[in-house]
Amino acid sequence: MPPETNKNEDYYNATIAKITPIADGLSIFHLKPDEPIGGQLPGHYVSIGLFDKSHNKLVRRPYSLSQSLTSDPDSNLLELLVIRVPEGDLTPALFERDTGDRLFIRPKMLGTYLLPELDDDMTIIFASTGTGVSPHMTMLKACVDKCRQVVMMECVRYSAELAYASQIQAYAAERSNLLYLPLVTREGGAKRYIQEFFSEGILEQEHDIKIDAAHTHVFACGNPAMIGIPREDRKTGALSFNVKNGLVEALIQKYDLSIHKPRRPGEIHFEKYW
Q1: Rounded to whole angstroms, how far apart are CA atoms 244 and 82?
Q2: In this predicted model, what pLDDT tens digit does every residue of 141-163 receive, in sequence order?
Q3: What is the mean pLDDT of residues 165-191?
Q4: Residues 209 and 179 sit within 8 Å (Cβ to Cβ)
Q5: What pairing do the DSSP bridges indicate for beta strands 123-129 and 149-156?
Q6: What are the distances in angstroms from CA 257 to CA 88, 206, 229, 253, 254?
Q7: Which DSSP letter does residue 66 get?
Q8: Could you tell me which CATH class the domain 123-272 is placed in?
Q9: How crowded is residue 264: how many other Cβ atoms within 10 Å of its Cβ?
């Protein structure tokens, strides 16, 4: 009989170039596709995969692209901030991989969580939990360079999970139009959640951030409990909120912003991770 071939490699078209551990079960992966993937825009995501021998199939999952601020990005590398999900089908295997190992990347940029046309009278607010900061990292420089005011908010359990905090703080120190608000919920002290900054008017009262539909866009990515994505009645268009006092509800009811849709542009953009 001929020797058994490794069919896994038939699927793989990229290499793990670098892994940077951030915290327990949280790492930044830099991936190098065999062939460059063009068309990347801030906010795009890619699908990566590993072959599962036990089920004889390629397991794929989407991940938003990220971007560190410490150096000029290598156009040949794709950066992903990934958290290990113990019961997940992909990440336990991914975290067993090392630099030089191979994996699959779908050779196409995907997603509609993209920036509007920017102008110098615009305020952009980024709100994220956990690894939801990733797409906002790809958007940050463009917004700071163009817009009047940029607010970067992220909420995590422990400060060690603020993967890009030192980078953002150094970047904000040199740019007066960037406000960085990191929030930590499990290390003592006053516990605040992102949605409270809007429902209770904290951004306005404590940071003098004006929010209005004419000049403000809000991008929210991460935990659905933070975002509070409503259900829309197909006939009437009426919205109902299963999560009370979520970010979207506050933006609609308190500030009169609207949800962005391809055929009906609005000021509220969201990307949920589960």
Answers
A1: 29
A2: 999 999 999 999 999 999 999 99
A3: 94
A4: yes
A5: parallel
A6: 36, 21, 14, 8, 8
A7: B
A8: alpha beta
A9: 8
Q: How far apart are the first and last CA of the chain?
A: 46
| Residue limits of CATH 2.40.30.10 in the chain | 8-105
The arithmetic mean of pLDDT across residues 130-146, rounded, is 98
Element (H, E) at 33: strand 26-33
Query: In one letter, which amino acid is 103?
Result: L
Backbone angles phi, psi at 16, to 5 degrees: -75, 110
Runs of H (alpha helix) within the chain? 8-11, 91-94, 133-146, 165-173, 194-199, 202-207, 224-227, 247-253
Amino acid identity, residue 246?
A: G
What residue ranges of the chain are covered by domains with CATH 3.40.50.80? 123-272
How big is the chain, counted in residues?
274
Domain 8-105 is in which class? mainly beta
Q: Is the pLDDT of residue 274 over 70?
A: no
Relative to beta strand 102-105, strand 45-52 is antiparallel
Cα 75 from chain centroid? 19
Task: Count CA atoms closer than 13 A to 123's CA, side-chain side.
Answer: 15
- pLDDT for the residue 258: 96
Which residues is 228 bridged to in the sheet? none
Q: Please enumerate in sequence order all residues whose Cβ is within 8 A of that of 254, keeping only pairs 6 or more positions apart, or say none.
A: 198, 199, 201
SS3 72: coil
Half-sphere exposure of 260 (CA within 13 A, CB side): 17
Q: Which residue has the higher pLDDT, 266 or 242?
A: 266
Q: Which residue is associated with the tokens 């209770």? A: 200
**Tens digits of per-residue pLDDT, 59-68?**
999 999 999 9
Task: Tell me: pLDDT of 2 over 50.
Answer: no
Q: What's the CA gap between 96 and 91, in Å, rounded?
A: 9
